[in-house]
Write a structure and sequence with these properties.
The chain is 81% helix and 0% strand. It contains nine helices and no strands.
Length: 213
């Protein structure tokens, strides 16, 4: 972890941008660790908070935008490419589609905290023909949340980054699990309200027809 801090300190904002872009595009670069390092350097006065977060968010959005456009233009081939190393790519493709169909763009708020899911959601949004403005808004919110959480951890625990880096993955998964639980409750309640509304709407329609007669 100290090596990453020194690397960011030496090369500044440019390496932070490059690391986050590479991580989101799918290269084996530990993006969260670079955010932790950036947060610690902000705490020590070596970096400024606004430029660090702005570059991190921009890098995430640009990388995910590339995946979104690939999904929009190439369809399921992109999703199959993402799952090409899985034991059963077709099963992973189906599971990804079912998950996106259930939660939609809300997944963009959380997917960066879940390794694997972050590679699937942006191309899925493109494959499903989600509007560009809607995707950009959800992606921007998710990138801000992701960058803020990890940089915030680095800021608060700057004196013990090695332990923080060890716990960061678990913390991210716990955060994502809690948020997914909240999303599930929201989706279920919305589904229940819809099923209550439809019969009531149909019944009122029948009443109006009978009264006209």
């Amino acid at each position: 972890m100290n090596a990453i801090v020194q690397f960011v300190l030496k090369h500044g904002y440019s390496v932070l941008f490059a690391a986050l872009f590479a991580h989101q595009i799918g290269l084996p670069v530990p993006g969260p660790l670079f955010l932790l390092a950036a947060g610690a350097l902000v705490r020590n006065g070596k970096l400024s908070l606004a430029p660090a977060l702005a570059l991190a968010v921009t890098a995430c959005v640009l990388a995910d935008w590339a995946w979104y456009e690939a999904g929009r233009r190439l369809g399921d081939r992109v999703l199959h490419f993402v799952h090409r190393l899985a034991r059963d790519p077709d099963a992973h493709d189906r599971r990804a589609k079912e998950t996106f169909a259930r939660y939609g763009l809300l997944l963009l708020l959380l997917c960066k905290f879940v390794p694997g899911l972050d590679a699937v959601v942006p191309p899925m949004a493109g494959t499903s023909r989600t509007g560009r403005l809607r995707f950009l808004a959800a992606e921007l919110a998710g990138a801000c949340l992701y960058s803020g959480v990890y940089a915030g951890l680095g800021f608060v625990f700057s004196q013990d980054l090695n332990r923080t880096a060890t716990c960061a993955s678990s913390l991210g998964k716990v955060f994502a699990a809690v948020a997914f639980a909240g999303l599930s409750i929201y989706v279920v309640r919305k589904h229940v309200r819809w099923h209550r509304f439809v019969p009531e709407f149909e019944w009122r329609g029948l009443d109006r027809k009978s009264s006209k007669r």
